[in-house]
Structures
1.
Amino acid sequence: MGFIVVLHVLVCILLVISILMQAGRGGGLAESFASAESMFGTQANAFMVRLSTILAIVFFSTSLILAVNSSKMDRSLMARTKLPAKTTQSVPQETSKEPMVKVSEPQPMQPLVTTNTAK
């Protein structure tokens, strides 16, 4: 399980880097990575698109694997302790420390009486 988590984090970092290095319509951050073309040749954009596609597939695969494994376990992937069992017990009225407040039934509103004093 630890290998998959490490692989997932590594793929996340590489995916972000590969997307940022791609040349967009306006150049984007690809302008600052001018050495990308010299490193990968003139077909740098096609290579980066393929690399991003492969990394995205690996990212989704590791995400699904981690989600399925997490749902089958009764503990967290990040903690070594077991999660507490969920209980739906209600607190009895006698042990409740909150004061009981009785509310009366709502009363109808009194009609508003206006007197016309202007003549």
2.
Amino acid sequence: MSRAVNQSEDEAMDLLRRFGKAFNRADVEGILACVTEDFVWVQATGPDAPDGQIVRGAEEVRRALAARAKVVRDVRFSETEVHHAPGRIIGTFRATGSYVADGTAYDVRGVDIYTVSDGLIASKDSYWKQIV
């Protein structure tokens, strides 16, 4: 995940806007169009201590999104803010939705830390508030 390449703030914002819109629509192909072939997504939860779940490449992204659709639905990201820094893009957000199993709603805030390579997202490291 150390392949970060500086890019203009306008380019970074456009890339994150396209990625975010695809994520909000659950548009897997749109998401994949914004990431590198060897994209790494470090999810907020999962079995891989201390990281959560680490997803690598297009096929694993497809599987992870399909698995998530079986657990949560009506996922919406709002209150987004994107901050461009040399070698990194930081995005904050609010995520809402419900659990498929029982319909219980969730409402959390989170942060994503991105690296970009050749105008595409090379990694996304996600952090969500844990409401207990």
3.
Amino acid sequence: MAEPIRDPKKLQAQVEEFQTLQRQAQVLGMQNQQMQMQIEELNLAQEALKDATGKVYAAIGNLLVETEKSKAKKDLTEKIEVFEVRKKALAKQETQIKEKLESLRKELEKATGQQSK
């Protein structure tokens, strides 16, 4: 187990690192949520496309352009795959940061004489 930190500067540095990690975990959590929302929207678009008849349009920036149904399906599938990969990467980063946070929390508790129950 780690020795209690006696140096106030070192303790302050660890507190600042802890706070930074907390902010990073929060940002990653929000990004993960946004990614999930994007995936859900793409899945809804994919479902709507299954029933589509007639002309199909794809959004390109602020424009809607006519496209083939098969191309739109392929594009949606590819986008979903990309977002799933990004979501996995974010989840992995979030897990790693949470593990660091827990370890640092234990060190800080020991350094300040607090024990978790």
4.
Amino acid sequence: MKKIERAKKEDWPYIQEKLKNYILDSTNASWKQFFVIKNNDKIIAFGRIKDHKDYFEIASLGVDCCHRGKGIGTKILLFLTKEAKRQNPKKPIYGISHKPAFLKKAGFKEITNAPEALEDKKKRICKLDPANSRIMKLPS
């Protein structure tokens, strides 16, 4: 498996298709926000860092169905959190997931007081499993 790299413009059609298929957040998405993992030049995982003015959000993380359960999602999640910290170590980092145990692997904690935009996103986008969707924050 190759290293994680910044997505390229030619990766965008694949990412867009998977965002739709996996029911992930595509709001204001741009290929420039994404990082990918490729195997033999084929994308097998991707995720993005959304830079909100006052915080980062780890979002739109997907792993190709054939490569799930191998730790690839955790690998890109950990990379994205480190990259966000590198970009601005003082900015809080949030994530929303219907599988909170996944975000907990990177140290995220469930919170009750989240930015309004994330509360709105949870209502608007997290339709796959709204009862289990959680907004989480990475402790600083």
